[in-house]
Design goal:
The protein is 32% helix and 18% strand. By secondary structure, it is an alpha/beta fold. Mean pLDDT is 92; it is low at 402-407. It is globular. The chain has a seven-stranded mixed β-barrel. A five-stranded parallel sheet has the order 6-5-4-9-10, with helices on both faces.
Length: 942
Amino acid sequence: MSLNKAEAGPDSFGARGELSVGGTSYEIHRLDRIEGSGRLPYSLKVMLENLVRNEDGRLVTAAQIEALRDWQPESERNPEVQFTPARVLMQDFTGVPCVVDLVAMRDAMTELGGEPSTINPQIPAELVIDHSVIADSFASPDSFGINAQLEFERNQERYQLLRWGQQSFDDFLVVPPDTGICHQVNLEYLSRVVFTREQAGKRQAYPDTLVGTDSHTPMVNGLGVLGWGVGGIEAEAAMLGQPMSMLIPQVVGIRLSGELREGTTATDLVLTVAELLRGLGVVGKFVEFFGPGVANVPLATRATIGNMSPEYGSTATMFPVDAETIDYLRLTGREDHQIELVEAYAREQGLWHDPDHVPDFTRVVDLDLSTVEPSISGPRRPEDRIPLGDAPRTVLGLLAGEHEKSDSDEGGVDDTSADSFPASDPVSPGAKPGRDAPPRHLTEEQLTANEKLGWPSDPTEVVIDGTEAIVDHGDVVIAAITSCTNTSNPSVMLGAALLAKKAVERGLRTRPWVKTTLAPGSRVVTDYFERSGLTPYLEELGFHLVGYGCTTCIGNSGPLIPEVSAAVNDKDLNVSSVLSGNRNFEGRIHPEVKMNFLASPPLVIAYALAGSLHTDLLTEPLGRNNDGEDVYLRDIWPSSAEIKEAVDANVEATMFTEGYSDVYAGDDNWRGMHIHEGEVYDWDDTSTYIQRPPYFDGMEAEPAPIRDIAGARVLAKLGDSVTTDHISPAGAIKRDSPAGKYLIDQGVDPKDFNSYGSRRGNHHVMIRGTFANIRLRNELVPGVEGGVTKHWTSGDEMSIFDAAMAYQYEDVPLVIIAGADYGSGSSRDWAAKGTTLLGVRAVLAVSYERIHRSNLIGMGVLPLQFPDGQDAESLGLTGDEVYSVTGLEGADSVPDEVTVTVEKDGRSREFSATVRIDTPAEEAYYVNGGILPYVLRQLLRA
């Protein structure tokens, strides 16, 4: 049983047509039937087709199609539309809660007398386990096996749930651990570019689109696939066949010309783009590349650019379909008919790139590829690009404290990106402009001044495996080839391996204080390393395989070399990591490493050889060989011709088809788990990672009438710009926190607490961490920071969790009072889930971040907005009053306004509040107590 359309919906624009490819006929929805659609950028054409195909007259209307057709590029606020993705992509940290909720829906369906097997994703859902492997072991042939075993032992409870889901749900696939990174697997295997599916008795073809529960989902934009990161509740809604509400975005066009120069890499280009786009300001916008230079950008490089969309702040960073797309599909072993379909569909629908055509854009910016130069970026922000030759002088200033801290505020791209670690939650920066400091630019005068500062030094002697060495400020202590951002690109990966070969042949060795790791995003990488014969050279320099997963890029870098760790802590040394990842915020890569620099894989190896940011890689030797000869980077840097020859000789389609032939099988640990058979999950009450959530407890087949809220108390009174990081549990679990006390009560040793991210499948842990951030300022307890409030019944100060449980015992409903821009930050589902489980019935705020407002509704919480120009202060609200909300009960539909009554000391007063339920879908969710009960009832009726 499915919520998918059983019969065709309206066709207000007469767009239905046929496309025949290789003897197979597909129904398509022709864009040329929509007058004026040819002027739209590629990304908006994809959105337009999505609306036309899903028009139903209720959620997706002809008016929405007209609004997109008539899009005004310069308008800062375009109309809202309902977007229906073709599929959902998840990783294990953010995907586990989605699966937990789906599993709980089967229990609820059973209890309501329905058939549990009807609960399945309504569109294809694909989950890749990639966020849990840690580089504990390194520089050893056994490292991969050791790290894989440790990962399984730490995460078996979570993996049992996912394995059960893999065998029990339709349209749900799980890529087991130690296989790859979700975005690289998506790029190389999962993405269709053109999707096909039976709908209303016909086989349809339409653009492949997706939403993902990871911020770097836009990596697939490089393949011409429109997709971006969303929070868990939005992903669950999409999985359950619900369209997602979004504003038609502005689209910034980047016109490419020229070609990359010899010696520059895809990473250099993406760091240049990061600097450019952050300077432009593209938060919440689509970015789209076009022009004659697009043909000179390989597909893997396009994917690298798309991958870093969160670092720019853009929702998506698109490349259109062209001959390069087709070549990549052929290279990665896609079926011939699928490749033929992609080209035929793109040409038929006006989605094939025409380098001479300039669509309507909000703004057009030119980028000449020949201006790109070798670069790194850091030490804390991806947009702070440093020309390679300027690196030592820049770092000198950083070590001296110059230009060290940006003045970025809470709620901006930098803050929300940093707060998304380690789970890589998609970011939703606040609406206020100017929150982020611009990319750092140092003048030649400043660099010269830095050079005169003198390199700070506090040399510490260490002995590592019998080798004497000195560790000092600015030394590189982690060199990691990591992250799908770059490991999906054969050119930079084989370039790194060729550099390693030349380095070994010239007698260079990695410095003993550098921890070296190799963690590619798919097994294809190690296959072409093996085939090329370059693996021994990488291993000679310590770059052994440590795992197929995110590792260092999300902070799973494992411990430093013990002697180095001791030196760093004893002398408070300011040391650095160099990694081929996408984020580098302080403390995120490793808590003992203050500076983190993003670089191409070849430069990662070069810095492992040099061992310090003090070295100018363009003019100074990386080291000396056994004959005392200086060896420079230019001596071992492979030419573009050498790299191309290695790629052409060693990367071929059979590697992808064979590498992915058993992608869902898993290793012996995965296959050997005992998995309960049956249509409902056998919950383990003793598990501290996975627990059945209470969202369906007491649920009836029909929703109860909406009730007013009476006698509510304020759980927290908050100011402006409270982010989801303030609300949602994140980071390490402290021993003396409510969550820590719970785990200790369950017999968990504090050393095994793990993070909130790893325990998102256990609501008992998560609600104890909701509103518990140490930066939270609850105005009910002035001068106190953290998750503390006043329990008005007793007058005592206590944790927000303890107060909420006391109010639940007393049967007292709760409200939150907040200022402007409530709920910006990472798109965390638990910011809304935790709110509802604490007993909060309504939030009263000056304004909301759009996604968090929608998520609150999705969990049955009423979002209310103060009258224009008013807030808690202007209305004299202190938070110690008793609140009632009337006007909901007995209404035929959810009203636009309600009356809020405030009582204190025997006096009462009233004011009107706007109900921020903005769409028919949101109203249906709220009436049903949330999106999960709504969908469950729909399936029960079906």
